[in-house]
Amino acid sequence: MTHSSPPEPSRSLAEPKLYRIKVCLIGEQGVGKTSLVHRLVSGSFDESYIRTLGMRVSKKTVTLDRPSSSVHADLMVSDIMGNRTFLNLFKEAYFEATQGVLAVFDVTRRDTLLALEAWISALLDRVGLVPVLTLGNKIDIPGRRETSDAEVAEVLRRYDCPVQYTSAKTGENVEEAFRGLAEAILGGGGGL
C-alpha cells in the first residue's frame, strides 16, 4: 500500500505584489505638507507648527485592490522645506527617481496657490511627466478660504493635474489622496 501526500492547495489568489514608490511633496512653507505626511503615517495631527529643515523621508504601505489580487505599495514620501531657494539648490537630489508628486497649497492663503506654478514647473523641468495631484489643504477652516474652485482650475489648467481638497487636522481625504496618487503611478487599476 502506497501513501500519497495530500494534494497541494490550489493557489487561486495570486500573492500580493509589492512596489516601492518615491513620492515628493512640493509647495510653500506652512501649507501643511509635514502635517499631511504625519496624518498619513501616524493617523494623528499635531497642533504645533513643525518647520521642516532640509528634507524628511517617511514610509507608508498602502494596499490597492486589483481584480485578481492585492497590490502593496510602499510609499517613500519625501517632504522638503517649503523654500524655493532651497529647492533650487537641492532639486537634483530631491527629485531623483521621483514617480509622483503631491503639490500642496493652503486654501486660506491665495499666494500659496499662485506659487504652485513655479513649484510644478521646476518639478517637470527636472523629472519630466510624472503623475501630479494637487492638494488644497486646510479645508477645515472654511470661513478663511481665499481660493475658489474656479481659480484653482484656472491656475492649474496648463498642468492638467487633478485637485483634491484635504485637511491634515481632521484627516479628510488624506489617505485617499496618497492612495489616488499611488493608483495613478501604478496605472490606475489597469493590468498589474
Characteristic key phrases:
192 residues; alpha/beta; Rossmann fold; six-stranded mixed β-sheet; 6 strands; disordered N terminus
Q: Main sheet: which strands, in order across?
A: 2-3-1-4-5-6
Task: Tell me the count of domains.
Answer: 1
Shape: globular
Mean pLDDT across all residues, rounded? 81
The helix tally amounts to 5
Name of the CATH class: Alpha Beta
Order of helices and strands: EHEEHEHEHEH
Largest sheet: 6 strands, mixed
Low-confidence stretches: 1-12
Distance between the termini: 47 Å
Structural class: alpha/beta
CATH topology, anyone? Rossmann fold
Could you give the count of β-strands?
6
* CATH level-4 homologous superfamily: P-loop containing nucleotide triphosphate hydrolases
- CATH architectural label: 3-Layer(aba) Sandwich
Fraction of residues in β-strands? 25-35%
